[in-house]
């Protein structure tokens, strides 16, 4: 068992993703500061924030709910990087690396969710 959420590999990976997104978006056009840049940064940071929120909850259903929210934030971030690729803000190499990491975190969150569900809840 982890003593803190910071020890969780899934949280660490989520923080790495948020940091990468921050660096990737530093040089976006200024016109995007309050639009796309803000939105993709908030979505990526929401992944780790909801993982840590789940860690702090005592009830299993609360934990599961926050892991679902984190998973949704991962797919929202994937949507944003897809847009960034299409409008030529991001190159294919950066996109591919981030997309893989987001897929991995999505799968890790699914494993966490399934590990917390009782057989009755898995239906």
Query: What top-tier CATH class fits best?
Result: Mainly Alpha
CATH architecture: Up-down Bundle
CATH topology: de novo design (two linked rop proteins)
C-alpha geometry:
elongated
Helix and strand succession?
HHHH
The end-to-end distance, rounded to whole angstroms, is 27 Å
Oligomer: single chain
**Overall radius of gyration:** 15 Å
| Beta-strand content bin | under 5%
Q: How many discrete domains?
A: 1
Helix fraction by DSSP (H/I, runs of at least 4)? over 70%
Kindly report the average pLDDT value.
95
Number of strands: 0
Q: What structural category arises from helix and sheet content? A: mainly alpha
CATH superfamily: 23S rRNA-intervening sequence
Main β-sheet, in a few words? none
Q: Figure out the total of helices.
A: 4
Low-confidence stretches are: none
Notable features of this structure?
mainly alpha, 123 residues, 72% helix, 4 helices, single chain, de novo design (two linked rop proteins)
Descriptive overview:
Helix 1 runs antiparallel to helix 2, helix 2 runs antiparallel to helix 3 and helix 3 runs antiparallel to helix 4. The two termini are 27 Å apart. The mean pLDDT is 95. The protein is mainly alpha-helical and 123 residues long. The protein is elongated, with a radius of gyration of 15 Å. The protein has a single domain, classed as Up-down Bundle (de novo design (two linked rop proteins)). It is 72% helix and 0% strand.
């Amino acid at each position: 068992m982890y003593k803190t959420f910071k020890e969780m590999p899934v949280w660490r990976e989520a923080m790495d993703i948020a940091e990468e997104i921050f660096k990737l978006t530093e040089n976006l056009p200024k016109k995007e500061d309050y639009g796309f840049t803000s939105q993709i940064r908030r979505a990526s940071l929401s992944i780790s924030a909801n993982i840590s929120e789940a860690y702090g909850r005592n009830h299993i259903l609360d934990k599961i709910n926050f892991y679902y929210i984190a998973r949704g934030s991962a797919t929202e971030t994937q949507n944003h990087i897809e847009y960034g690729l299409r409008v030529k803000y991001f190159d294919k190499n950066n996109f591919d690396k981030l997309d893989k990491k987001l897929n991995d975190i999505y799968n890790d969150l699914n494993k966490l969710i399934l590990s917390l569900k009782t057989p009755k809840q898995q239906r």
